[in-house]
Amino acid sequence: MVIYQKNIRIGAKRRGFHLITREIETILPEIQHIKSGICQVFIQHTSASLTINENADPTVRQDFEYYFNKSVPENDPGYLHDDEGPDDMPAHIKASLMGASVMIPIQNGRFALGMWQGIYLCEHRNRAGSRNLVITAWGI
């Protein structure tokens, strides 16, 4: 059993859904030594999230943004937490709905994602800063 772990800082991105699969693969080339295993990607923030979905058609990411903005709108008068602006509480809700981590199988030194799958960084803030990720891979 081997375990590899690295931290990565992703530069600030505009609000929306961004493919980061290549960045993850680049930061952890050690997965090539794992025949069978798992990789967990974890985001250390409460107003951004991670998910796995369509990697080919960018309109899917635009539709994700449209859906979540419609489902969890800004400026809801019922929100109590708005310390950092009207996108503050909606960003926290969206992050909880989406999740803070993804798990990817590793087979023969590569991520075993489906042909049309990619890892998304889901940025829910209007003016976000950089985001910290912890990437852990383990296997044999």
TrEMBL record:
InterPro entries: UPF0047_YjbQ-like (IPR001602), YjbQ-like_sf (IPR035917). Belongs to the UPF0047 family. This is Secondary thiamine-phosphate synthase. The lineage of its organism: Bacteria, Pseudomonadati, Bacteroidota, Sphingobacteriia, Sphingobacteriales.
